[in-house]
Design goal:
- By secondary structure, the chain is an alpha/beta fold.
- It is built from 12 helices and 12 strands.
- Strand 4, helix 6 (146-156) and strand 5 (159-163) form a beta-alpha-beta unit.
- The radius of gyration is 21 Å and the shape is globular.
- The mean pLDDT is 96.
- Bound molecules: pyridoxal-5'-phosphate.
- Belongs to the DegT/DnrJ/EryC1 family.
Length: 366
C-alpha cells in the first residue's frame, strides 16, 4: 500500500532559521551577559544605528513592541482626547487600539479590494475638524499608496503614522515604508519579517524634535534621569533582543526576496483557478503574509481540507475592527472590509520551495 500523506506544513516554522543562526545568536547573547548592559545597552544603540542606515532614515528608536511604537508616535505628535485618526478597519487590533489608548477616536475608511489596504480615495470624505492624523497599515507587507496619502495629509494639515508592523523592508516606489510619514512604527514580534525572540518594536522618523520627544516618552517621560516632565512609558527594546536582531538584520533582504519568489510561484501555480484571487505582486512588497481570497463562500471549507492534509493556514483577520465587541455599533458597515474578512486565507510563505509546491498541489486538488 502506498501512502500519500503530506508533510506537516505549519503556517510558520521559526526552527530552520534558529538552527541556521544559533551559534551567532548564542554568541551575541553571551556578549550581553558578559557586559550585563541589559537595559539600553550597547546592542540597542548599535541596532538603532544599523536600522537607521538600512531604512535610510535619520532616527531609529527601539521600543518594547509595535503597539508601543504606535502609541508613542501618537503621543509624540500630541494626539489625544477629542482627536480623530483615520485608519483601516482591516488590520490587527493594535492599530485601532493604539488610537483608543491615547484617548483619540479611530475613524475607519473602507479598503480597496485590490490591495486590501485602506483606500486613499475614501480618506477625504472622512476628514472632520477633529481629524489630526492618518494611520495607514501596509497590510501583509504590501505598501499603501503613500504618494496619495501624503498628498491628502499635506492638503489638510494632517500627520501620518505608518503602521509598518508587517512591512519591515517593504518599499513604496523605492523608498522604505515607515520613512515617508511623520513616523514609521515597526514590530519585532517573533513572527514578523524581522522577528525578535520576544517582544520588540521601533520608531523611525526624520524629524529631530519628534525623535527627541519619542526618546523621552520611552523612558518614563524623562530626558534627564529623575527629571520626569510628563507621564511616559517603560518601553525600551531589551538589549538581548537588540543583539539577536543585529544578527538577523543582515539576512532580511535575502529573506524578503525569498518571500517574493514564493509569492511569484504561488501566483503562477494558482493562475486561472476559478474562485481564487491571488495578491498583486510588486517589487516593493515584503510579503509578511501570502494571502489569497477564496470566493463564493468556500474559504472555510478550503481551509478545513488543507488542514486535513497537514497544511496550516491562517485567517488575518476574521473580524474587521469596527465589528469587534469594543467598537461594535459605533460605526457604519464597511462592505469591502467585511467581505475580505470572509474570503482571505494566508498560506505558508517562509518555507522552502518543495514545501510550497506541496501546498500548491494540495490547493489545486481541492
Ligand atoms: C503585529 C502588529 C502590531 C503590533 O505589534 P506588537 O509588536 O505585537 O505590539 C500592530 N499592527 C499590526 C498591523 C500588526 O500586524
Amino acid at each position: 500500500m502506498t501512502t500519500t500523506a503530506h508533510p506537516q506544513i505549519p503556517i510558520l516554522d521559526l526552527k530552520p532559521e534558529i538552527d541556521e543562526l544559533r551559534p551567532e545568536i548564542m554568541a551575541a547573547i553571551g556578549r550581553v551577559l558578559d557586559r550585563t548592559d541589559f537595559i539600553m545597552g550597547e546592542d540597542v544603540h548599535l541596532f538603532e544605528q544599523e536600522v537607521a542606515a538600512y531604512l535610510g532614515v535619520k532616527h531609529a528608536i527601539g521600543v518594547n513592541s509595535g503597539t508601543d511604537a504606535l502609541v508613542i508616535a501618537l503621543r509624540a505628535l500630541g494626539i489625544g482626547p477629542g482627536d480623530e485618526v483615520i485608519t483601516t478597519p482591516f488590520t490587527f487590533f493594535a492599530t485601532a487600539e493604539s488610537i483608543s489608548m491615547v484617548g483619540a477616536k479611530p475613524v475607519f475608511v473602507d479598503i480597496d479590494p485590490a490591495t486590501l489596504n485602506l483606500n486613499p480615495e475614501l480618506i477625504e470624505a472622512a476628514i472632520t475638524p477633529a481629524t489630526r492624523a492618518i494611520m495607514p497599515v501596509h497590510l501583509y507587507g504590501n505598501p499603501v499608496d503613500m504618494t496619495r496619502v501624503m498628498e491628502i495629509a499635506a492638503k489638510h494639515g494632517l500627520k501620518v503614522v505608518e503602521d509598518c508592523a508587517q512591512s519591515f523592508g517593504a518599499r513604496w516606489q523605492g523608498t522604505q515604508t515607515g520613512t515617508i510619514g511623520d513616523f514609521g512604527a515597526y514590530s519585532f514580534f517573533p513572527s514578523k519579517n524581522l522577528g525578535a525572540y520576544g517582544d520588540g518594536g521601533l520608531l523611525a522618523t526624520n524629524d529631530d524634535a519628534l525623535a527627541d520627544t519619542a526618546r523621552m516618552l520611552r523612558v518614563h517621560g524623562s530626558r534627564k534621569k529623575y527629571h520626569n516632565e510628563t507621564v511616559g512609558y517603560n518601553s525600551r527594546l531589551d538589549t538581548i533582543q537588540a543583539a539577536i536582531l543585529r544578527v538577523k538584520l543582515p539576512h532580511l533582504e535575502k529573506w524578503n526576496t525569498h518571500r517574493r519568489e514564493v509569492a511569484r510561484q504561488y501566483n503562477e501555480g494558482l493562475k486561472g483557478i476559478e474562485g481564487i484571487v491571488t495578491p498583486v505582486l510588486t517589487t516593493g512588497h515584503a510579503f509578511h503574509q501570502y494571502t489569497i481570497r477564496v470566493q463564493n463562500g468556500r474559504r472555510d471549507d478550503v481551509q478545513q481540507k488543507l488542514a486535513e492534509q497537514g497544511i496550516g493556514t491562517m485567517i488575518y483577520y476574521p473580524i474587521p475592527q469596527d465589528e469587534l465587541p469594543i467598537y461594535r455599533d459605533q460605526y457604519p458597515a464597511y462592505e469591502q472590509s467585511s467581505l475580505a474578512a470572509k474570503e482571505v486565507l494566508s498560506l505558508p510563505i517562509s518555507g522552502n520551495f518543495s514545501l510550497i509546491s506541496s501546498v500548491l498541489n494540495s490547493l489545486k486538488s481541492i
